[in-house]
Amino acid sequence: MDALPALARQFAAYVGVSLAAFGVHYGVLAALVETGRADPVRGALAGYLAGAVVSYGLNRRLTYASARPHAEATWRFGVVAAVGFGLTWLIMAGLTRGLGLPYLAAQVLATGAVVFWNFLGHRLWTFAARPVPVLSEGASGMR
Q: Average pLDDT for residues 22-29, to the nearest whole number?
């Protein structure tokens, strides 16, 4: 039963880090769309990438306290983020282009869906503790 409060604390830390990443994400999105430099879908994707940079550093250190080497964690983070990127694209395109929703409302819905994917992907794979190899009795020299 101690696992549930620990999971809740970790998710709360993730949400705090996510707020910082969302600030960057939404700032880039709004800046690109409002200045006419990008349509809402491209702006959302650019914002997603900028937020991902913030998310990696803070989540590695604060949320998951991971000791996984950067060389391993960064490509894993990239895979999870790429799936989230694809989900963001699908949701934003469907809601803004398909249903005509305002881009910020669509982004809020996309964020709500993607946040759970990213948390679980990073918890269970990106920043998870590395498995410890088990030596056979003969290989360890112990009897």
A: 94
